[in-house]
Amino acid sequence: MKKIIFLVIIVLAFNVKLPAQIYSPNLLSYVGQGTIFYPNGFYQGGIYGGYANGVGTFYWRDGSFFSGNFQGGYYNGPGLFVSRLYGYVTGCWSRGIFIGPCNGIYNPYNDNTRVQQEINNVQSSLPNDQRVVSHDPDGYTIRKIDANSQVGQKLLGRGF
């Protein structure tokens, strides 16, 4: 019986997907605004001790992005996840996990107009770097997606 319990714990431990942190060991002593590059995208915004911290944006190569608050390298607080092809999900995150609507916390991404403004801001503030390519050839789909829908769950399960 102990062996079975042990095996179940091992299987669960390797199948639990934890959100990835945005971190750069090269920026360990850095505090301020900066950019951290990854093979599948980049982060641009506040950095503290190598971790994404403060307001920022993580931009994937396919043009999708998360814009909002970060703490300790995780999405944390109000934010906006935009998929170029499907639409957007807005709400609050805790340590990289979507928790739902921002009850009692101001969320600036509460309507399509603000989402369109944020998309324009993100597109106009891309760093001038050969590793960055803007992916807005035909515009973004600006419609709110229910986080509990199948598409919403698929988008929110995305990692770095």
Low-pLDDT runs: 2-18
For the secondary structure, the number of strands is 7
Number of domains: 1
The description of the largest β-sheet is: 7 strands, antiparallel
The secondary structure category is alpha+beta
Strand content: 25-35%
Helix count equals: 3
Percent range of helical residues: 10-25%
- The rough form would be described as globular
Using only C-alpha atoms, the radius of gyration works out to 17 Å
- Report the span from N to C terminus: 38 Å
- Rounded average pLDDT: 80
Task: Explain what this protein looks like in three dimensions.
It is built from three helices and seven strands; from the N terminus they run αβββββββαα. The protein has one domain. It has a seven-stranded antiparallel beta sheet with strand order 1-2-3-4-5-6-7. A hairpin with a 3-residue loop joins β5 and β6. With 160 residues, it is an alpha+beta fold.
